[in-house]
Amino acid sequence: MLTKEYRICMPLTVEEYKIGQLYMIARHSLEQSDAGNGVEVVENKECCEDPEHGKGQYTEKRIHLSSRLPYWIQAFCPKVFYIVERGWNYYPFTITEYTCSFIPKLHITILTKFEDNAGTSENCLNVPEDKLSERAVDFVDIAFDELNPKHYKKEEDPKFFKSNITGRGPLVEGWMHDTPIMCSYKLVQVSFEVWGLQTKVEDFIQRCVRDVLLLGHRQAFAWIDEWHGMTIKDVRDYEHRKQLEANDKVLTATQEQQAEESKQACVD
């Protein structure tokens, strides 16, 4: 099992990020949905109260991504391929799990906690002492870490973006010493116990997770003028609308793909 703890600082408060995160995930999921790829929301409801963390929100999603996998994985994956995401949001603490029925030995768990600091808590996710040596800590800088060029947009670059509403930005060297500042601590555990592929797959998934975290958190800040001032009801309503749009987009594309494959099979 490969374990990494990502620490992503944001020029926000934890209370602000509660809204920004929900807005970002909903909009990002819709934007990433195309031609059979994307996020399909299966459930989004209140979950049973946790004795430690209180009331929370449960979500279950199908992440369709077959055409975005590297060729060496596509070679043994079915054409219609998705990963199941289950999440329990007890903000400011969340649990997220990823599984795939086609690859039962693949399991990803992400524990997240949000704190109003610059990533200075050494073990806020309470990793057992005997496991700390297995954890690699990786600070993700939303302003200066290199983003995959295919996702780059100047208007979403924190080095250039300035919020009209809050006056925050652009982010310059040393920005993490300014206030407000909060940190998203994410303990990501990836397990793929298949001889000959374990290291390669676990490394690949951790790189993908880091790329998604970098892009998503850059967008959450760059979109601040759209979500700042929303109430939790406002953002939940927005989330619901975008989920319906994303589901329709993914399912329509999947049905068209299946129809085309059936047509091609008849021709062959």
From TrEMBL:
Transmembrane segments: none annotated. The keyword GTP-binding does not apply. Residues 1-243 form the Phosphatidylinositol transfer protein N-terminal domain. It comes from Culex quinquefasciatus (Southern house mosquito). One of its GO terms (cellular component) is cytoplasm. Keywords: Lipid transport, Lipid-binding, Transport. This is Cytoplasmic phosphatidylinositol transfer protein 1. GO terms for molecular function: phosphatidylinositol binding; phosphatidylinositol transfer activity.
